[in-house]
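Thread: Newbie trying to understand structure tokens

Hi all, I'm a second-year student working on a class project, and my supervisor (Dr. K.) asked me to get a predicted structure for one chain before our next meeting. I've only ever worked with sequences, so writing a 3D structure as a token string is new to me. If someone could post the tokens and maybe explain what I'm looking at, I'd be very grateful. Here's the chain:
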Amino acid sequence: PTPPPPPVDESPQRFAIVKNKKTNLIKADKREIAGLLANVPCKEEKARIRVEKVIREDFTIEAFEILELLCELLHERVRLMTSEKECPPDMEEAFCTLIWAANRVDGIPELAEIAKQLKLKYVSTSPCEHTATISADSDA
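---
Reply by user tm_fold:
Sure, no problem. This is what the structure looks like when written as tokens:
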């Protein structure tokens, strides 16, 4: 059996690293928010802005967890995919999501490589051709 391509192997570790960095930044931001609210002239507006940032980062971490799961699924199914010419029906949603997310996620270069390989193999037979087209348009 052929081993999975390195991007599929390495992506879960990269997601873990990026998630840990973001989690540490969130903790620091929460301490800063507490400091802003604890100051004698309470800086509530600044604290609200920081809270919005923390919420966005938390959503990003949740999205990374989903993408990490999809990469792990891809890793488990790589042998099946090499033997099939068309996109497996149960993997269509995962492929489309990974292709769509590749241009929108910073800090995970393996994701772009995974999307590139998926496009090369399945873009003509995939139901997410419009996703690939949108991703290609956003590259320009």
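A couple of things are worth pointing out once you decode it. The chain is about 80% helix and 0% strand. The CA atoms of residues 50 and 56 lie 10 Å apart. Feel free to ask follow-ups in this thread.
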